[in-house]
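Let's sit down with a protein and look at its sequence and fold side by side. Once you have written the record down, we can walk along the chain together.
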Amino acid sequence: MTFIETVIANLSDWGPRLAAGLVMSLAVTSAGFTLAFLLGLSLEYLRTRSSFAIRAAATTYVVIARGVPILVILYLIYFGLPGSGIVLSAFAAGSIGLGVVYGAYLSEVFRAGLGAIPPGQREAALAAGLTPAQAFRLVLLPQAIRHMLAPLLVNLVSLLKDSSICALIAVPELTLTSRAIMSESFLPLHVFALTAVLYFALAWPASLTVRMIEKHLAHGSGASRQRSTAKKLTAQPI
């Protein structure tokens, strides 16, 4: 049989199993990204505090988390914590490990997005009587979101692909399921080609969405600059 015929012939057996693995991959990705989002937002908030110790602690965390491989973090959580009496399931360890690492990356995304907001916005919010936390949540963050949508989606796609590493701590996601099917069928090329197609089917639409957002924001920024220039020209005396 040809390559395609072999895949089709085995699809009735492989399909449901790969679909279950794909659902698990999406679950660990969702849990990991949610944790990373909250952690990254908290880290960026801490790095804007006036206390040097708090800023230094948050910055140190970001540097360490970005400098250590994800697999090492997963091993520390899944195999290391039981020595301290903390036992986590493979799913929980995988989600936490991904969230811990990507939280550091997302904090840089938030930093860049918030850095695009003029400093006067925060000063005005504080002068109006808001607390630093309220100014961050109600004034700065809503304005910064539009600058962060595309980078957040890029990190989400990266996290989805990195979720395959969780196979090494026995999370029954798509890659581990593919390995199990491959060991039974002895058709590694067929199985992992199909797995690659499934990953691509998820990542490609997200990548297209990122491009659309970037084009929309670039168009919006260009139109805004044109309106600003037109106002200045019409305001000048003839």
In short: The mean pLDDT is 87.
